[in-house]
Amino acid sequence: MDQAQSLREYMHRYKIQQQKPESSRFITITSGKGGVGKSNFTLNFALALQGAGKKVLILDLDLSTANINILMGVTPRYSLIDVLYQKKQIWDVIQKGTHGIEYISGGLEIQDLMEFDQNKLWYFWSQIQELQTYADFILLDTGAGISKELVDFILASDETIIVTTPEPTSIADSYAVLKTVLQFTKQAPKFHLVINRAQSYREAVETSRSLKNASSNFLKLKLNTLGFLMEDDHVRRSVRSQIPFLISYPNCAASKTIKQMVNSYLPDIDSSAQSTVPRGIRGFFEKIISLGKLS
Predict the structure, then answer these.
(1) Helical segments of the chain, H only
(2) Handedness of CA 289, 28, 236, 164 (dihedral sign)
(3) In which band, very low, low, confident or very high, does the pLDDT at 22 lie, cut at 50, 70 and 90?
(4) Mean pLDDT of 111-138
């Protein structure tokens, strides 16, 4: 990219920022165990939000098995680590995938930030803050399982979507994530529940009821069910072809369900009395750092 093109790209992004006074809303998307379709959900949910007219950025924080780019059949050129080590601008590490959906490959352990000198950290923060009003939603695709880093992400986010399947181990692991998070805070974060790969609507409802009842009775936590995704062969085909099912099979059951989730989710965050003003990207990373220092 030459300097003139780089300048045009910067001015275009700056213009977008000036038109968007609100801060980005951070949504952590996680699961208690791997193999439940979390990254696939993240990608297609992002595309559905984009289809509803929202600006979306995916931050792939699944450092061990980053899947977002694989699901789109693309290879990221840069990651957040290049901002710290190579002094890349944040705009350099935003990659474009299917249908122009934008994502950033993480490549960075939160604890790494604690080890950098002030000059590097200052540069990192100055670049991160460029994204403060760039997107309506920033989706964080985290690694599966329980870790202190996952807890930090959840506590720093505006809300969290937890993806589970009807398998007993998946339900148990999802409950374990919820229980662990509540051990680190007195104020329960906002959680949404997605049941994936259900064999029937009845199975999905029973899975949701089971996890919601356990959370309410033993954790005093209210879970909001975002929706149910049935087992759909179109999803498997889309993974093999590395084209998101919302794009390759827009009329399949999974695609219709994802769109319905977005259609019910967007009015809910606009009208909910519990919906707080988003912290934005600066607030998110400041919260992450404070949590890291306390751990």
Answers:
(1) 3-18, 38-51, 68-72, 80-85, 90-93, 110-113, 118-128, 148-156, 168-182, 201-219, 233-241, 245-248, 253-271, 280-294
(2) positive
(3) low
(4) 76
